[in-house]
Amino acid sequence: MTKFARIAALLAITIPSVAVSQGVPPTYALMGEGGSAIGTVTLTQAPRGLIVRIDASGLQPGWHGMHFHSVATCADAGFKASGGHVHDAAVTAPVHGLLNPNESDRGDLPNIYVGSDGKAHAEVFASGLSLGPADGRLNLLDADGSAVVIHAGADDHMSQPIGGAGARIACAAIK
Prior knowledge:
This protein is mainly beta. It has a single domain, classed as Superoxide dismutase, copper/zinc binding domain (Immunoglobulin-like, Sandwich). Helices cover 7% and strands 34% of the residues. The protein has 1 helix and 11 strands. It has one helix at 3-14; strands spanning 27-32, 37-46, 49-56, 62-64, 66-69, 112-114, 120-127, 129-130, 138-139, 146-151, 168-174. A 7-stranded antiparallel sheet has the order 5-10-11-1-2-3-7, with no helix packed on it. It is globular. The protein starts with a helix and ends with a strand.
């Protein structure tokens, strides 16, 4: 086996089966309370997850929890129809929290910060997620899609079920 063939074989083992999009990444409207557009969520497929970019305005200054929820709907008051956080189907009792040693909730994301002008611009990485079928990753574009939800307060990354982040104040349907 040539050196190139050995490297190619090694790469074939470590690269996930989903193709990384070479085109423009999808951008979704971020809706605020009352149904008005307050920004965008852009999801860029990466080899082992997604890069999540948030651009928003009209939010209260401070830290806000942000999560992927299980249903692509943002039409109801309080965005409750977006369901709970996304998680692996095999997990019957998902545990919330990026700081939780038993973490199994794939919807957990870092907090975002909103400046005194009410604007947030953030980019975070969400491992284990995909915008299509991928070995070992959760497909956000399943039959009912998913949603990015921003909460009124900060997520402490440990408390159950949502880290004390409070009410849902913004939502982007991912479908």
